[in-house]
Amino acid sequence: MTPEQRRAAVANMTPEQRQALQARRAARQAAGGGQGGRPQGAN
After folding, report:
1. How many CA atoms lie less than 13 Å away from 23 in the CB half-sphere?
2. With CB atoms counted within 10 Å of each terminal CB, which end of the chain scores lower, N or C?
3. Radius of gyration of the chain from Cα atoms?
């Protein structure tokens, strides 16, 4: 998914969907994830 496609998808989301996306993103950050990386210590 290109950045443009991602922006368009977010623009078409309902507030509830956007909130769920932000919650997932926050959970991934808290778990040590990032741009396609594995969580820390997952060797």
Report:
1. 6
2. C
3. 13
pTM of the model: 0.54
Using alpha carbons, select from 36, 32, 39, 31 the residue that is nearest to residue 1.
36
Read off φ and ψ for residue 16, nearest 5 degrees. Answer: -65, -45
Which tokens is 33 given? 């994830």
- HSE at residue 26, side-chain half, CA atoms within 13 A, is 6
The tokens for 39 are 């969580």
Task: Give residue-wise pLDDT tens across range 1-43.
Answer: 899 999 999 899 999 999 999 999 898 888 876 566 556 665 5
